[in-house]
Amino acid sequence: MFHIHNSNRMLNKLSLEKQEHIQDKWLTSRLDYVLKEAMKQADLPMWIVISEENNDDPVVESLTPSLHDCTRRLSIFVYTLDQKTDKLERYFIGGAHP
Hints:
Elements (H helix, E strand, L loop, with lengths): L5 H6 L4 H26 L4 E7 L21 E9 L4 E7 L5
Antiparallel strand pairs: 1-2, 2-3
């Protein structure tokens, strides 16, 4: 049905490093805009996600950059929405966070 040449498909693939860069830019956009709007609509001033070692919360994968392996001991993600300034603040307890 479709005439797709394998050689052309291989040329159009991005390297893993470029894919990760794009994924991380989307992550920043989701955290800065989508999460902020969702918290406003839900009238939620704070959202806390707690994840334990070897028992990651399923949402952690959508909150962390592509190079994040797994939770170490305990990871706590805190998102606060300042209703006066309309700014979303992100905090992470347990290591570096995007």
